[in-house]
Design goal:
Elements: E1 4-16, E2 19-30, E3 36-41, E4 49-54, H1 55-61, E5 66-68, E6 71-78, E7 81-90, E8 93-100, H2 101-114, H3 120-124, H4 126-134, H5 140-147
Antiparallel strand pairs: 1-2, 1-8, 2-3, 3-4, 5-6, 6-7, 7-8
Length: about 160
Amino acid sequence: MHTVVERELELKLVLSPERSIPVPARLIYRTDDPYAVHITFHIGTDHPVNWTFARELLVEGVFRPCGHGDVRVWPTKVDGRSVVLVALSSPDGDALLEAPAAPVSAWLERTLRVVPPGSEAEQLRIDDGLAELLAPTLGRFQDDLWLRDPWPSDESQDGE
């Protein structure tokens, strides 16, 4: 069973230093994708905009500037309020979003309680999957398979 940690939040799309518009968003963290956070922006169209990036990037960005390329995150103060700025860049354009720091931090704390940092790989159960894949199968078929020469020499006849 996988756990989902969600939070509805109103972000601000910063258009200029003097102007921004509200953007309803949903923060989503899923234990079946333990390294990532997902943000869905509801921008008044039939199709919401989805972004996915490393949870670690958002965790670090609450405290100090981080990221490069498509996603950058940093804390700041706007009119005396603590906020987290998220700069997103894509071939379709760029966006600067402002999120209130306290709700983002509280949501992140919930995700960190569900899957502590450093334990993400355990959620993926890669070791279990590999062990299952590599485990010998019981039965005659396996014995026949292992005993047969996969590359018969030119001297053998009919794969003997």
